[in-house]
Input
Amino acid sequence: MLTSGEINDLLYEVFILAVQLGGPVLIISMAVGVIISILQAATQIHEQTLTFVPKLVVIGCVLIMTGGRMMQRLQDITEQIFQMIAG
Output
């Protein structure tokens, strides 16, 4: 049986993992969006797809580069949770 302290520790670890996995993708996406917005303001081209396509490409590249590490971290936390439940 899990104690409330163990559950709190696990929830904290899962929260930190979510920030670590989602943070880089969100920050890079925001940076690309700001850069493209500045370029759009300078050139006065206000096309909606102009921001979508570069963000999609950059996020895809980031996920390709870091996806293996992300999956390993998720697998580790899942195994840890199952071990806590089982024993």
